[in-house]
Amino acid sequence: MNKSMPRKYRQVTIMDIARETGVSYSTVSRVLSGFEFVKDETRQRVLEAARRLGYVAHAGARSLAGGKANIIGLLVPGLDNGYIGEVARGIDEELARASYDLMLYTTHRQRGKESVYVRSIANGLTDGLILVVPLVTDYLRELQVQRFPYVLVDQSDPSGQSNVVDATNWQGAYEATEYLIKLGHRRIGLITGMMQIASAQERLEGYRAALTSYNIGFDPELVVQGDFWEPTGYQAASILLDLEHPPTAIFASNDLSAFGAMEAIRERGLRIPADISIIGFDDIPQASLVYPKLTTVRQPLDEMGRVAVRMLLDLIEDPDQPARHVTLATQLIVRDSCQAIG
Amino acid sequence: MNKSMPRKYRQVTIMDIARETGVSYSTVSRVLSGFEFVKDETRQRVLEAARRLGYVAHAGARSLAGGKANIIGLLVPGLDNGYIGEVARGIDEELARASYDLMLYTTHRQRGKESVYVRSIANGLTDGLILVVPLVTDYLRELQVQRFPYVLVDQSDPSGQSNVVDATNWQGAYEATEYLIKLGHRRIGLITGMMQIASAQERLEGYRAALTSYNIGFDPELVVQGDFWEPTGYQAASILLDLEHPPTAIFASNDLSAFGAMEAIRERGLRIPADISIIGFDDIPQASLVYPKLTTVRQPLDEMGRVAVRMLLDLIEDPDQPARHVTLATQLIVRDSCQAIG
DNA sequence: CACACTTTTGCAAACGCTTGCAAATAGCAT
DNA sequence: ATGCTATTTGCAAGCGTTTGCAAAAGTGTG
Fold this sequence. Notes:
2 copies of one chain form a homodimer. Chain A is an alpha/beta fold. The first copy, chain A, folds into 3 domains: about 15-55, Orthogonal Bundle (434 Repressor (Amino-terminal Domain)), CATH 1.10.260; about 70-165 and about 300-330, Response regulator (Rossmann fold, 3-Layer(aba) Sandwich); about 170-300, Response regulator (Rossmann fold, 3-Layer(aba) Sandwich). Helices cover about 40% and strands about 15% of the residues of chain A. Chain A has helices at about 15-20, 25-30, 40-55, 60-65, 85-95, 115-120, 135-145, 170-180, 200-215, 230-240, 255-265, 300-315, and strands at about 70-75, 100-105, 130, 150-155, 165, 190, 225, 250, 275-280, 295-300, 325-330, 330-335. In chain A, α1 (about 15-20) crosses α3 (about 40-55). The N and C termini of chain A lie far apart (about 75 Å). Chain A binds a DNA duplex through α2 and α4.
């Protein structure tokens, strides 16, 4: 195109620093990357020059040469659901402390060729990968054969080979249901999540367990399948409300579907919580924004992100660690959407 | 560490493809990057081999060698406000079509050393940058001296040197206010945004203009400064409601502060919209989730992201284009939070 | 002061790719 | 065939780093 001007602004390289300080570029490299054996005085001089010159490493060159790029990848389905946003926030914060950068990948890109996609992520720039994706199994093999560091968030790998951080789904669902029961509810509807996902199953189990504990019969009619999204929550709630004996309370497997359910409830002219109670799961930021404020089970989403980062960084340090599984505690957050039965 | 095993899974390189097809690596490179003059049959053979071998380019090497990395950077304050999420979605979608990847940067990282931060972004990997940041001026100089391609979203550069995409803020605010006026409201409160930001000012101007058009006096008491965040919206609304002659309607400069205002209103036992109307700006996804559903001015956030990407890609193609400024239309979305005055 | 270490430093090669330049090949008119 | 031009290809250098290996400086010891 236009070759009269430099394609790119001339970068400050380790060569420049070397020239400035009179040491060799390898020495500069050593102080700038890890800390090998270099005399303290030299190190200071180099560091000072680097700062003065405004040096910033070229991540590509680093990674090419076999070093770390200081970049990790985050693979998510999309940014549009609050849930991911919170996790991402935690990730970003923790990454910042370690001076890592973030590459964001979304799954909707590939449609059936995930392994190529994942390969392209693992290849090259990123030092590790955090996956916050449902239905993760397809990706995993590729990652494992490459021995590429990754951690799963809120997802479980049946093979147990993966590092994962999740929350006490069973427990949380148990508590939510128990809370409803203690408020006097006996007919409690459940809107499930995508049942292929472990957390959805665990929440269903928790719900059943609570019923059992309190000697309430399990009525299949009262559980309708959802998919963690709002529209389906709406439909699911509609089904529940149209039952001959509709529930007096609904437990939605996540907040988004609870919102959908609230809408369906209101449309029928019912009041929340006077006529029907509703409880969600996740505690995304919107939960306290809706009216009435949603009672829900809080997952420490940002903390999950932070923990994931720490695990990943550890893993990058030492790829041969045995896989860890960290489970963070959920917590019942009582707000305004539930009420003792009249 | 452990040097007995390869640090990284051996990658498929252009050399492998060259070997496979019997052409030289430069030829392979040529077909794989741009399309220089290469015989069609050769191109096909190379492409086929690349696919078969599962080749994926090493972005770092590319960028190092002076080519494009096919990565663009996105600089945002954070992911936690719905607004950004929508823009990011548009960006991601459009990027996907062009096979670009996304690096995500957040501003909270730097505190006072933004120029180094920006340099480190511009340096190396990314081919261009999209900024969705308030108070952008600090960054701009660095970017400009580097002649680094960037575009501003929903932000304006007073110098007019920048490519920017935004929305009709003045117009939108005018229409929102006019809508309230036509509903019979005469005392209309305004919760502003951060006034250092152009869009906040434009919205204020639009509000004033509408009042003027309808011969309603501007009462300074009725405009209170906000910052686009929910808590401040709450406070601002409180001030408004405590006025001797409180407004009968409130125009919040964005949805988030409208949510805060709604909370304040409800806390005082007032009903929306029966006792007081409220209108927002942005139409983030939550707007239709809250109760009552928020009437608001829609910014086509995802489209703004998409347009920004297209502009940026153009700009990367030809950095010497004159700066463009694209303004997308806003649209009044009538929902349930406004009502004609009693 | 020589000797054997130990700590620091420097050189060179390599990482995967792009690209200027020159060489090879093809196409076509003589 | 012979030249000439237009199209295609290959070679080599270089992008900014890291790192193995060897050389250079220090440190102690006898």
